[in-house]
Amino acid sequence: MRFSIAVLSVLMLLVGCKENGQNENLSEGNWLVELDVMDNQILPFNLKVNKNAHGKYTMQIFNAEEVIDVDEIEISGDSIIMQTPVFEGYLSGTFTKNSIEGKFIKESLDRIVPFKAIYGEEERFKIKNGSIDKNVSGIWETYFSPDLEEEYVGKGIFLQDDNKVTGTFRTTTGDYRFLDGVLDGDSLKLSAFDGAHAFLFNAKITDSTMNGVFYSGNHFKEPFVATRNDGFELPDPDSLTFLKEGYDKLAFTFPDVEGNMISLSDKKYQDKVVIVQLMGTWCPNCLDETKYLVDYLKGNNEIEVIGLAFESAKTEEIAKKGIKRLKDRVEVTYPILLAQYGTYDKQKAQEKLPMLNHVLSYPTTIFIDKKGDVRKIHTGFNGPATGEKFEEFKTEFNALITELNNE
Asked: Which candidate, 122, 124, 76, 118, places its Cα nearest to that of 97?
């Protein structure tokens, strides 16, 4: 009887481990994930599944040269949840050894995008035509939602190698991250997925024009047109946001994640160069800038940085949890204050900082000198996907901080 009970206990333990721990049936190696967006379009990205010596799964998401490590994976029976780092978005579904079917979910925005994943597939976009009679390498002057009230300008920067195309679109509010795709005959297809945004660009190409559609998940799409223009440049990002007439200082008081009220007028920030970062934990360009600032501060402790988070999370508790997660994952040493939750609406954000003419972009970076005067406001962020522009930003950033510290 005792033996039977012991055996039963072990069996129950093994079953419990299988149901609540790692499932050994998920194949290791390369997978292709396909999200169902609008107009029956498919948004693909590449995924690699690994298992370490302890039997724990990890994954990697690939967008061109970007590699996103995913280590928050929960498996129970045939169910799996893959939480992307920093951002709230996650993939949830059921799986067999060689397939996963489920949904990409962003709870704060009530967005759900169906997906399926197939093991062994490595080709992001399948080549149908195969001809390489065009080349999109170079600079493209781009207009999204052309001739509409919502029109805005972008700068396409692309490099083509055979059929493979990588690059990004820069805009006045930031870049569209690491785009990865192909030119198949006269059809350009580019995609990116990072857990915050799912982007798909489809366009027809001539030697000098693009005519296409930009999809963001399954909730938004807009047309775009582009023409080759190697001399094209976007408006100066330092000229778009400024203090309104009648204001000469930036002022605010917001709580940190522990509930402590922090103000720019606090003693800690007096007689110091201060950078104020308008951002959100949901924002990939903000994450790029946050990583840059974290790395900069490791070797330069003569300045102070304050982050002001404008969060889409529906409750204060969830918003603070997201901030804590960002700080932990990226090892942020500076305070990130909760300026707004429930929406990241830019008009409402501007109401929190009435001295600004507007909040045009997340991130927006405000440079303050030792006297407390605003010396520069930089709109948007040119991240690593922009290549030379990112290097240019770093050079200008270092020069300005050196100048302000030497005053």
From this structure: 118
pLDDT one-digit tens code per residue, 114-123: 999 999 999 9
C-alpha to C-alpha distance for 269 and 178, rounded to whole angstroms: 36
Q: Can you give the pLDDT at residue 216?
A: 97
What is the reported pTM? 0.90
pLDDT at 355 over 80: yes
Domain count, the chain: 3
pLDDT digits (tens, 9 = 90+) for 3-25: 343 333 333 333 444 444 444 58
- Give yes or no: residues 338 and 365 share one domain: yes
CATH number at residue 366: 3.40.30.10
271 and 389, same domain (yes or no):
yes
Nearest to 84 by CA among 174, 178, 197: 197
Q: Is residue 313 part of a domain?
A: yes
Q: Which domain holds residue 303?
A: 253-406
